[in-house]
Design goal:
Blueprint lengths: L8 H10 L1 E4 L5 H17 L27 H4 L5 E4 L11 H4 L2 E4 L1 H4 L1 H7 L2 H9 L5 E11 L7 E4 L13 E6 L10 E3 L11 E5 L5 E5 L23 E3 L6 E5 L4 E3 L8 E10 L18 E2 L5
Antiparallel strand pairs: 1-11, 2-3, 3-4, 4-13, 4-14, 5-12, 6-11, 6-13, 7-10, 7-12, 8-9
Length: 302
Amino acid sequence: MMSPPNLSTEQLELWEKNGYLIIPDAISPETVERLVRETRKLLDEFSLEGHPMTKFSTGGEDGSEDEKHVGDDYFLNSNDKIRTDAFDSTGTLIKPKAKAINKIGHALHALSPPFTSTTLTKRNCAIARSLGFRDPHVLQSMIIFKQPEIGGAVPPHQDSTFLYTDPPSAVGFWYALEDATLNNGCLSFVPGSHKSAAIKKRFVRLKEGGTGFEDVEEGKGNGVREKGGIEAAEVGEFVMGPVTKGSLVLIHGNVLHKSERNLSDSSRWIYTFHVIEGEYEYDEKNWLKPPEGGFSRLNDDT
């Protein structure tokens, strides 16, 4: 049964309490299949020739933020293109192409009709408005693959670190195209950490080229720091969040979340995009630049 077009009082209470919300059966099996077919088409069309063999991660493999991030034009200029991340940390393709690609992004919602029709919808607009958005804008749409046996772990992170507004406003819309299980790398969260873990660093384009982290100015970070925000390692225990295909997971930009390696023989494909508040400042330091004409808007009459 399809979920209602807006969030219920109970769902909003869970969102406020936990900083994430799982909505089963958010899109139909037919929509899932349509997105899977489009994904396979994109994989078939992707050519390895000329690929710069880049890798983009949320931080060090141990969860730290010291690891250098990709700073080349391939991903920095992906705001209005569909591009892939297909290689391991050494630049080696160790599986067949369709079994090795990690990501396709970052403009699927703008350039791929099946993803556009799933993203820029009245329902997603109603959800965003239920969460308090006045002018919701969509950016950074991606298919993320955890491939069988090689899908890597994603260390604890906060999405607002990478899509920073002042004040922070990012919310992830995470649609499962396959079952995400305890064995193939489902998400896990620290419930309530959006209230206690401030955004202390942000991911930026460096003046000297490439990307890196810089400290967020004292007093910012959604007001958490003023309330005695604590370090990420101290906020609490992670709770696993397995979901079935067709589910939507909403992810507050401040909530700590991660995923483990996929050591199973089952893949885990998901489609995700982020929404930010268009009335807040999204400045030139952000690594992902708005395309010509600006980020896509979610409208009530979409």
